[in-house]
Each structure stands twice: as structure tokens, then as C-alpha cells.
């Protein structure tokens, strides 16, 4: 008697290629693999479940529409999806009326669906000094541009960019992730 052969799950890149061919099942599988991470990031940034839901769905629809443009040499599928979602979350923040939140409100703990992501993020942030952590929070969680950070911190824009780059490099080193060469905005 032969047992049914178990086929391994296709890699994310194969799902993207299938999406580019119009395979909706591939989109559903990619959603099931990565939506929890995107919801956790969105919850931390937006704090409003309805907005998070809408933005995550928009991010997956953007991934669907642009799946043929995905380039595995530039980023992993996970990184690509996080980038798409992060841009959507930032747009949502920019579209909101100005309602100031204290940094402590942004720093409040949010339950992550996968403890591994939370542990890795915590480990990466722990290597930063207070000034670097503050810049990272303002840039990535509150969505401030480099020029806005310069105004908020009173630092020259070049210094803001340098300190953010150094902070990201330190975080990457703490996670032992090799740096990718800098590239212009991708338009995803």
C-alpha cells in the first residue's frame, strides 16, 4: 500500500508567480501566510481595527495587481509585502486629521500574533540608544518624513538621515541580516 505523497508548500516566490498568472488560490495562500504580521504592524501604527483591516486588504490587492513586477533579487516576498503594507499604513496616517498622540501611546505594547516577530523586533530595538529609538519610532510608526524629523528634532536633515541609516544598520546587525544595496524607491 502506498501512502499519499505529501507535497511541500510552494515557496512564496512561486505563489507570486501564480498570482501574476491570475491564480486567486495563490493570493489566498499568501494572505494566510503573512496577514498576521501585517495586521500586527498595522495595529501598532494605526490603532484602529477597521483602518487596519482596510489597509491590509488594500496591501494584498496592491500585491495582486503588481505581482508581475515582483523581483526576488530585490527583496523577499515577506519584505515586499511589509513594504507595501507599511506604505499603505503611512498613507492612512497622512490622510487622517491631525490628532496628536504622545510617544508613550505609540510605545504601548501591542500583542503580536507571532512571538518570534515580537522577540526579533525587541532584540533589534534594544541595541539602539534612546535618540536612535526615538527617530525610528517617529519615522516608522508615526510616518514622519526626513524633513519632518529634522523640524521635530531640531537636527539638520543630513544628520537625521545619517542617524536613521546607522540605527537601521545596527538593528540589521543585531538580527544578523545582511544589508541589501540601497536602491531608489520601487513604486510598489
Describe this structure in words.
- This protein has 188 residues and is mainly alpha-helical.
- It is 65% helix and 0% strand.
- It is built from nine helices and no strands.
- Helix 2 (24-46) runs antiparallel to helix 3 (49-65), helix 3 (49-65) crosses helix 4 (77-95) and helix 8 packs across helix 9.
Layout of secondary structure:
Elements: H1 12-20, H2 24-46, H3 49-65, H4 77-95, H5 103-106, H6 115-126, H7 130-141, H8 146-153, H9 157-175
Helix pairs in contact: 1-2, 2-3, 2-4, 3-4, 6-9, 7-9, 8-9
| Rg value | 18 Å
Shape descriptor: globular
Reading the helices and strands in chain order gives: HHHHHHHHH
What average pLDDT do the residues reach?
Answer: 81
Give short descriptive properties of this protein.
mainly alpha; 188 residues; 65% helix; single chain
Short account of what is shown:
This protein is mostly helical.
Amino acid at each position: 500500500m502506498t501512502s499519499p505523497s505529501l507535497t511541500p508548500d510552494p515557496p512564496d516566490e512561486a505563489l507570486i508567480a501564480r498570482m501574476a498568472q491570475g491564480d486567486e488560490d495563490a493570493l489566498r495562500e499568501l494572505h494566510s501566510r503573512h496577514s498576521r504580521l501585517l495586521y500586527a504592524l498595522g495595529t501598532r501604527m494605526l490603532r484602529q481595527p477597521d483602518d487596519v483591516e482596510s489597509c491590509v486588504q488594500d496591501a494584498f490587492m496592491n500585491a495582486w495587481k503588481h505581482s508581475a513586477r515582483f523581483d526576488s533579487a530585490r527583496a523577499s516576498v515577506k519584505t515586499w509585502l511589509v513594504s507595501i503594507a507599511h506604505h499603505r499604513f503611512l498613507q492612512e496616517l497622512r490622510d487622517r486629521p491631525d490628532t496628536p498622540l504622545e510617544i508613550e501611546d505609540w510605545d504601548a505594547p501591542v500583542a503580536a500574533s507571532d512571538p518570534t516577530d515580537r522577540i526579533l523586533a525587541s532584540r533589534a530595538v534594544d541595541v539602539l540608544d534612546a535618540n536612535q529609538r526615538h527617530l525610528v519610532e517617529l519615522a516608522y510608526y508615526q510616518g514622519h518624513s526626513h524633513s519632518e524629523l529634522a523640524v521635530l528634532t531640531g537636527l539638520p536633515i543630513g544628520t537625521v538621515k545619517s542617524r536613521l541609516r546607522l540605527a537601521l544598520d545596527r538593528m540589521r546587525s543585531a538580527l544578523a541580516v545582511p544589508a541589501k544595496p540601497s536602491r531608489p524607491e520601487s513604486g510598489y
